[in-house]
Amino acid sequence: MITEPIKTAVIQLECKLSRESGNMRRAERYIKKAIKDGAQLVCLPESFLTSGNILDVTDVAVTIPGECTDKLCQIAKEGGIYLVAGLFEVDGESYFSTSFLISPTGNIIGKYRRVHCFEMERKYISQGSDFPVFNTDIGRIGLLQGYDINFPISCMELYCKEVDIIICTALIPEAFFYVTNQLLTARAIESQCFIVFVSGIGANPYAGFKYMGRSSVVTDPMFLEKELFDFEDGDETMLMMDMDEGYKLIELDIHRLHKYRESNSRIGDLVTSSYLQGLSLNNIEEET
Amino acid sequence: MFKIQDRKPRKAPFKDIDVARAYDLGMRKSALMSYQKPANRILEQAKDEMSDIVEVGVNTGLLSLYIGGKLPDTPVSGIEENKILLEVAEENLNLAVWSSNKGDIEFEGGKFHAMPFEDGSADIVFSFSSLHMWRNPIAVLKECKRICKHDGIVIIEDLNRAAEEGHITFVLQFIKDGGNEFIEALGSSYTPAESRKLLNEAGLEEWNVYQEDLGLIISSKPIDSLSSNLYTEDSNDN
């Protein structure tokens, strides 16, 4: 049973194109600093090693496990932490945008290959097919990536699997900050869990935009209110970083979340037999 | 003639990216020669299997790019406090990467007096044309010592305000753009005697101060090629 809040480090890394070595050096330094500060769970952004260099994915993608994850596993083992990060993954002839979870014993517990990819991305990377949840000593952890937040069904899948913490690694263009921030709050309320949105910063000179940064941690405000009785609007945003590189440590009270869900979970009210049955894009088109 | 008798600390320059880009272009057009000797001094200190070379104050990144290109297997990490200069340095590094520079170079923002490197992690710590901008030079000197390995070396080069006037006029004739920038930097630079005092106050009495042409060189260990240029309390400091 989890009784103490989980010290979680959000590393907002500047992810620089074609700068794998430098990105790794800085990431490594922040992870070690977080370990020193007592973090139990450390999170890095999506494609932290290469940035969103999708045009060169065939050159920059790495295997999982591989050299990069071996290094991260070693650091996680030395520090006794859970670690989440995103990479472009190559598996045979296929490429994915993948997040993975490493255990304090230095093993890869599992990975998530991003399911939702927009049209241009699908020319370069393949889509994943499921939304796994991993049972750990610090709670049930689900992984998502930035674009998934646009699809309520992503979080709903994880909610049905009783996720405690959704770690959403992200590299989202700055223009989508406002919308993404709105969606994150809604997804956290819908899913009655914590969402750790760990976002990269930096410029993508290929595409001419900057990544949004503003990493955040959001949760369902109702469970805060239930316990504290002093909830004020906005409390659901437990952390919001700015646009600078750095890391923040925050405590996630999984025990309190569980207590709230024991009596207030909506999972029992779901009517899964009525959702998306026989629904396909073709059906929608026919009906309209 | 140049009215640089008294040191005049500079206000933070380069608040505008276009000014910084113009300065960078000026350096590339007419002042690359000034990088040659410092670069060679750093490269002379190179050993096999170094873990890191750190530049304190990367400016627009030119010297780190050169060193990184010459030592492609050694990580080179540059720290810069001025965000505008750092942005120009990143532009230069991106172009270098795009042009297939083989160096393992990384630039990042950070405070010189609290650099993000572990104790004893760098084989060479160097700085070029940055000392005169340091707000707390004593703290930065101590920080340079902290991050440098015991068998490593710290080399800090800057303009010498006590340089002979002939050197100043000689250099000025080659500077096509940025003459004012140069004079301002010179006026805010330290003399060898002032440098010695900074070192003593930082508890670095064993470090050395050299003067060469227009330059001032501080090193944590003796540099053989500069032995005849060593500054001592008895030297003439103008």
Instruction: Please state how the strands of the largest beta sheet of chain A are arranged side by side.
Output: 5-4-3-2-1-14
What string gives the helices and strands of chain A in order?
EHEHHEEEEEHEHEEEEHEEHH
Kindly give the count of domains of chain A: 1
CATH architecture of chain B: 3-Layer(aba) Sandwich
What is the multimeric organization of the chains shown? heterodimer
Proportion of beta-strand residues of chain A: 25-35%
Classify the helix fraction of chain A into a percent range.
Answer: 25-40%
Name the average pLDDT of chain B. Answer: 91
Helix/sheet category of chain A: alpha/beta
User: Which overall shape of chain B is indicated by the principal axes computed on the Cα atoms?
Assistant: globular
The figure for the number of domains of chain B is: 1
> What is the CATH fold-level name of chain A?
Nitrilase/N-carbamoyl-D-aminoacid amidohydrolase
CATH superfamily of chain A: Carbon-nitrogen hydrolase
Helix and strand pattern of chain B = HHEHEHEEHEHHHEE
| Biggest sheet overview of chain A | 6 strands, mixed
Within the largest sheet of chain B, what's the order of strands? 3-2-1-4-5-7-6
End-to-end separation of chain B in angstroms reads 14 Å
Q: Note the total helix count of chain B.
A: 8
- Gyration radius of chain A, rounded: 18 Å
Output the structural class of chain B: alpha/beta
Keywords (chain B): Methyltransferase, Transferase
Domain Methyltransferase type (chain B): 55-156
GO molecular function (chain B): S-adenosylmethionine-dependent methyltransferase activity
Organism (chain B): Shewanella woodyi (strain ATCC 51908 / MS32)
